[in-house]
């Protein structure tokens, strides 16, 4: 069984995070066509934010997955929003996402964060994955969007 090391994200690994993001989100359930340079910019913008937080997973010294998000203060306390949880396709279904998520949740609890939120696909395996970790669909809120062309 492989051993994995979970540690804080590093600005020095932005290239790797971008590559992982582009590869992970090109597959099911997303099937998004990310250019690696755009994915690098995406993760850079989050990681360089003052309130960002992230963890990476290493296998034999290679980054194979990461979780990334940021905190925001509301009237009832600080919340954490998970922006990205991505694992290289060859390393998926090996417990890496679970390890990253569980460590993130434990650290948020230690920091006194009031809640952790995320947006994910409405169908497929992801609602069940997050449900196993205590996430629930929220009543009283909806995600709204507007295209700007």
TrEMBL record:
Transmembrane segments: none
Ranges in a coiled coil: none
Domain N-acetyltransferase: 4-149
An annotated Gene Ontology molecular function: acyltransferase activity, transferring groups other than amino-acyl groups
InterPro entries: Acyl_CoA_acyltransferase, GNAT_dom, MshD_Acetyltransferase
Lineage: superkingdom: Bacteria
Name of the protein in question: N-acetyltransferase domain-containing protein
Gene source species: Eubacterium plexicaudatum ASF492
């Amino acid at each position: 069984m492989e051993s994995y090391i979970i540690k804080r994200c590093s600005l020095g690994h932005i290239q790797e995070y971008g590559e992982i993001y582009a590869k992970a989100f090109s597959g099911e359930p997303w099937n998004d066509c990310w250019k690696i340079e755009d994915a690098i910019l995406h993760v850079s913008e989050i990681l360089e934010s003052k309130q960002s937080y992230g963890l990476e997973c290493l296998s034999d010294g290679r980054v194979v997955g990461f979780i990334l998000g940021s905190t925001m203060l509301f009237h009832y306390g600080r919340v954490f929003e998970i922006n990205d949880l991505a694992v290289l396709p060859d390393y998926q279904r090996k417990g890496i996402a679970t390890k990253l998520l569980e460590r993130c949740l434990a650290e948020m609890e230690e920091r006194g964060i009031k809640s952790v939120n995320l947006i994910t696909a409405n169908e497929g395996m992801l609602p069940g994955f997050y449900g196993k970790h205590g996430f629930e669909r929220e009543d009283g809120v909806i995600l709204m969007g507007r295209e700007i062309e």
